[in-house]
Amino acid sequence: MNRGLFRGRGLQIYTWLVIAWLVVPIAVMILFGFNDTKGRFNTVWQGFTFKWYGRLFEIDALTQALINSLVIAVLTMVIAGALGSLIGLALGRYRFRGSGSLNLVMFAAISCAEIVMGASLLSFFVTLAVPLGFWTIVISHVMFSISFVAVTVRARVMTLDSSLEEAARDLGAGPWATFRLVTLPMIFPGVLAGSMLAFALSIDDFVITNFNAGGTVTFPLWIWGVTRVGIPPQVNVMGTIIFVVGLLIAVSNIVVSRRRRNA
After folding, report:
1. Those residues with Cβ within 8 angstroms of residue 220's Cβ, 6 or more apart along the chain or in another chain
2. Structural domain span for residue 171
């Protein structure tokens, strides 16, 4: 009994330590977005202020880097979401020659180190004489995120009740109508989850982007470039806004999912 109680408390302590490990850096980032710093290095608390929220877009290079990251992340979400969903649908629904190899390639892309993926893509672009820049970043992000979308959608497809699609076809619906009216609504939660995952992976990627960026600067690359001269408070503010928006999307998704289950 005492051993069980000790293990239970130990597990609780460990859980709270992990939560603290994850939350403390975010809390510090949010806090120092309100720091009334007087110097270049925003590392010492000097007072509370809202002025950095009013001067959020004061640094043109930082603003452009954030815009680049958001545009690239949205394009990655759309392209990887569409292609990955089709791959996940095919793998979850059909058995065909090469499906095993495709599964192996997808999980290899997920598990391989980012430096390997970045270097491989760089060699590919250099071999084909493709100029490095905005579109090579988009291609690179689609390449490493498409597997995450496919795996997510496949897991959703494998839980579907195929009798619903059969009933639609028996009632006269063609293949496209069956997919649009029956299959797509059923797999949409998986498509949305995979697409949002692709967006999150893209917007904060540094290693692969650094290999294939050329002259294009994204939000993570800009932050890395100014670490030696001091990170401005606007970085903390932008990070806070990105975190809050992501949190709101996650909470909204949970609320909608619960309403659907209760309906």
Report:
1. 69, 204, 205, 206, 209
2. 60-231
